[in-house]
Fold:
Amino acid sequence: MGLFSFFSSKHKKLRSTHEAETCRTIFRENEELFLRVEKSEELRRLRQLDAEINSPRFKQQRKEIEQLTYKGSECHTAEKQYKALLKTRKLQSYLIVNESKELEGYRLLQNTEEFREYVQLKAVVKSPDFDRQLHAAEALAYKKLIAHPKIKAAIKFESLRRFKEYSEIAATDLPVRFQQLNEFIHSDEFNAKRKYLLDKKRYRTTEGYALEQEYEALKKLPDIVRYQALLHDAYFNNRLQWMLAFSDEFDRNLLGGSRWITRYNAGERFLSDTYGVGKDVQLYMPSNITFSGSMLFLNFRREEIIGKYWDANLGITERKYDYTSGLISSAHAFRQQYGRFEAKIKYRRSPLTASFWLAGDKATPHVNIMKVTADGLHLGHIHTEGAEVKDSDVLVKDLLQDNTDYIFTLEWTPEKLVWMINDTVVKEERENIPHMPMYLAFSLGALTPPADKTLPARMEIDWVRVYTQRNPQ
Structure:
């Protein structure tokens, strides 16, 4: 939302500072969890299972298993054949005779001399051309043999229908096939397959089901659930693109010398001393930087002092200042091209100018993330077009409450500058975007002497944070 659309909208209400900070606190907690889960074995396994379970091959395998039936299966076919054979009379005869004592005795008798002689004589006597008168001796011998109790019993056994059916079946491969079926039907393998195919919940016994259960259990892990929710959280994903690159919470009650300088950059570089410039009525002194309760204060006060001054015609001279104030700059420690720059600052309108700004080594470009003067809040940036210096500064009136903390943010990308207050967009620019590393600075000053009744005055800064894009395009 641009500045005009924001102020012309029906709802001109900013998010509260407390809410904006709470969102940041929650984001940091979520970010810690998100990045931890991102590297976790549980998420790696979940993604692996997700790819496996949702693959066409896996789904087809599950469908095939669920569509299995006992009817028409190998087991069902074998069971039908087995039961059908059991009902065959000749096979029943075979089974009865094959396990009988009579067959056992008959087979023993077959190995005797008497039985072999009986078989031989029978072949002779029963031959078509046998003549009992010519071969009376053989006929008599045969008659005696068949009267022998054991031979007589054997002849009777051979005359039985079931023995004849046994002999018929024994001459085929049916006994072997039946034995194979019998062994298969009564095997653990058959029983397991039959039970599996008859089980309507058979899929639950498979490895695929076990993988699905593992997958569902992983999806329900609290950290995974939160991670998945964060993937679709617009605020979280917007913030996640930014990675902290520089910060100061000002909770050590001292100014880190390696992070901040307390004068203009040129004074630090060329003079190793502070100086004034332009219409500055104050000289910036490190003594005007104080701390209390995790806050940094830039103090403006009446104080007569002789100090350096930059004159465009004369160069560095000396002059008397009636005021001193505070400034901090990261010019020597930290600069960044593009990013998210923000600070929590107490908004206080006064005759002084309280600023949070970005700059480089030249006068332009210069970006005011926040500049508060007596007439209100100013946002904008100064740039050079050809030989002309242009200022996109706009005055924001009656938006902020005096003596109240706000989070002032600038999002700077190659395409645009976006100013936000408590995460609400209030200004956007897409032209003349700076493309160079810039440092950040805070200052409290004046261009005309303020009334004594307004002094001493101060600018209160709770914290400052700078982010860079985590994965810049």
Remarks:
- Confidence is low (pLDDT under 50) at residues 1-11.
- The two ends are 23 Å apart (CA to CA).
- Residues 17-38 form the longest helix (22 residues).
